[in-house]
Amino acid sequence: MKTFSMVVIFGRLDDASTTFVAEWIHSFGKEYVILNTDDERGQFVRYSSPEKALVFEKESRTVNLLDVESVWVRRNGMSQKAFGRHQEDINLNVFFDKTNRAQQHITKETNVLIEYIHDAVSKNCDRVLGAYRQGDVNKLVILDIAEKCGLSVPVNHIVSKKSQIAALLKQGRKLITKPLSQGVYAFTDTIAYFSYVENITEKNLRDIPDTFFPSWLQEKVEKKYELRVFYFLGKCYSMAIFSQEHEATSTDFRRSNDETPTRHVPFQLPPEVEGKITDLMNAIHLNTGSIDIIVDVHDNYVFLEVNPVGQFAMTSYPCNYYLEKLVAGYLCEKNIG
Fold first, then answer.
1. Which of 34, 83, 247, 265 could cross-link with 9 by S-S, CB 3.0 to 4.6 Å?
2. 292 - beta bridge partners?
3. Residue 67 and residue 1: Cα distance in Å, rounded?
């Protein structure tokens, strides 16, 4: 039995879902602390194995992370500067050549410590949601595992020459391109940068260089509608997105705007599809995540990807699922729904 009834959230300042869940935790009368990747206020103090002490301090509040009940691994949750990385230490001339080896070494040391902290906290908590090591999954590996679990997946190609794309188009294949990683999602004070799924056609082929960095192509699935599924402890909370109703959102529903709003409605997955999703999530050791699926014109369910830290407010609010309350209830040991 833990002596300190508290929830720890490893988050990020710009993650709205973290804030909404924290509000529910507060309403349940539970104490919590949020450690953010991009917030230097959470500072490492010390670790002692005989004392079972892993101490952080945030805003004059001291917390032993090995003595809390629940943890939600939403993000990394710890800034590199949370470990006293002072620039004067990094700039010490301990190497004969003028390189950034000192900085590289300190970064590696910090990463090892962050990994151990996540491992130790998760092993000591009664309830753990999310997983640090599975926080950034390989999309191609997940597709292979999903197929082994019985889920349908798109046909994939990795190409590095224009001639390879031309050959696929000549065969009559409809192609889209998407990032292998999580894609571009960055902001400045005046500009926002996003990467979208794009069609590859004969028309835009001429703008592509003869050779390029290996890029991911998928054969386009003709959509009837698409699904966003929030998976939570063995249950699926699904929403249908009728992105095909507008040309602007037909390839990527994120292009929706106020002039062409996209309909979002609650949806019930067939039991056999839910079972295969559960098999997949068990295989990759995740107890929560956001999943993208396409229902094609023949009513086949085609799995696209799972994002362990995907936003779920977009599913929660249109469908009245109150997912934030559900997450908070689990972390606070409340029986919600």
1. 34
2. 228, 305
3. 9
Q: How far apart are CA 295 and CA 275, in angstroms?
A: 17
Class of domain 137-152+223-307: alpha beta
- Distance between CA atoms of 336 and 331, rounded to whole angstroms? 11
In the chain, the amino acid numbered 185 is: Y
For CATH 3.40.50, the residue range(s) in the chain are 6-129
CATH number for the domain whose boundaries are 6-129: 3.40.50
DSSP summary character for residue 246? S
Residue 111 corresponds to which tokens in the numbers above?
A: 């990463």
Query: pTM for this one?
Result: 0.87
Q: Rounded to whole angstroms, how far apart are CA atoms 273 and 67? A: 39
Q: H or E segment at 89?
A: helix 87-90
Residues in the chain: 337
pLDDT tens, residue by residue, 270-323: 999 999 999 999 999 999 999 999 999 999 999 999 999 888 998 999 999 999
**What is the spatial distance between Cα 44 and Cα 87, in angstroms, rounded to a whole number?**
17
CA distances 167 to 170, 176, 203, Å, are: 5, 15, 14
**Tens digits of residue pLDDT in 79-133:** 877 887 655 555 555 555 556 777 778 888 888 999 999 999 999 999 999 998 8
Q: Is 134 helix (H, G, I), strand (E, B) or coil?
A: coil
- Joined together, the tokens standing for residue 229 give 């599924």
For residue 43, CA distances in Å to 60, 115, 237 come to 10, 16, 36
